Amino acid sequence: MPFRRLSNELVIYQFENLQRNASALTHFVSTRLGGTSDGRYASLNFSFRTGDEPERVVANRRRLFDALDIDPGAVIAGKQVHETNVRRVTATECGRGAADYESALDDTDALITDETGLCLMVLAADCVPVLLYDPRHHAIGAAHAGWRGTVAHIAQRTVEAMVGAFGTDPADLIAGVGPSIGPEDYEVGPEVVEQVRAAFPETWQEQVRLLPNGKGIFDLWTSNRLQLQEAGIPSGQIEVSGISSYQATDRFFSERREGRPTGRFAAGLMLT
Fold it and tell me: Which of 40, 67, 111, 236 is most buried by a 10 A CB count?
């Protein structure tokens, strides 16, 4: 997953498979570099909810949006609650969650649209951002998949929502599984292991490495990739970033590594 330097300090990452469609869409995964925040939020924090000064978050967002030629008033974000609510959005939702948390869409962990000029955005600091593009129907989706959302099949539900809303054929979809806590870094308790086992009875052993104490190491990348494949996306059209936020705290926020409070990075895409 190559990076792109927008200025001396401002850096984003982009999926190679989505970037091949750069004439049809703009997409990004922000880093923590090039912002105005300091301390535990240094420096490009995108979250209004973790204690940073709101005016700094607004300034951080504007820096990135200006560099990518995205109108902040076209950005749409949800109040992420680690569930499976997928929201189809239109121009009437433009600006929801762009400049404050209060206006973000309630109980929304995934967004889909087929309208141009709407930037769908999700936030993360170890959770998995998943971006989807349907080149045939010119439609997009963005999902936030923490462990709860992953176990509840949020990535698969987002694909299904696009099928229902736009007539998407999953075989056409191009998918990116973004930076998040990596497959060697995410230790979970026995209760999470059991939920993974119940949610993925045939493939759970590919997703969890059991530890002698009953805990496990949960591989969110594999889990979300397998979900997307199960939904019908060919494996060759799914790009996994391979970047662990836990290991790369010089570039990404990691709540598991840094503790609370910490900032959030963003992933988003927009049809052009």
Answer: 111
* Spatial separation of the C-alpha atoms in residues 143 and 112, rounded to whole Å: 9
pLDDT tens-digit map of 57-114: 999 999 999 999 999 999 999 999 999 999 999 999 999 999 999 999 999 999 999 9
Whether 20 is covered by a domain: the verdict is yes
Is residue 229 assigned to a domain? no
From residue 254, how far is each of 31, 182, 249 by CA, in Å? Answer: 11, 11, 6
Helices (H), 20-110: 54-67
Task: Give backbone dihedrals phi and psi of 258, rounded to 5 degrees, phi first.
Answer: -95, -15
Where is 162: in which H helix or E strand? helix 154-166
**Number of independent structural domains in the chain:** 1
In a domain, 202, yes or no: no
**Position 125 confidence tier, pLDDT thresholds 50, 70, 90:** very high
Determine phi and psi for 81, rounding to 5 degrees: -125, 15
Q: Which of 172, 167, 153, 182 is CA-nearest to residue 242? A: 182
Residue 63 lies in a domain: yes
Cβ density class 231-266: b for 16+ within 10 Å, e for less: bbbeeebbbbbebbbbbbeebbbbbebbeebbbbbb
Q: DSSP code of 270?
A: E
**Who contacts 38 (Cβ-Cβ below 8 Å, separation ≥6)?**
none
**Residues spanned by the domain of 39:** 3-181+235-271
173-196 burial, b at 16+ Cβ within 10 Å, e below that, comes to: bbbbbbbbbbbebbebeeebbebb
Give the CATH number, domain containing residue 245.
3.60.140.10
Mean pLDDT of the chain: 98
Q: Radius of gyration (Cα) for the chain, nearest Å?
A: 17
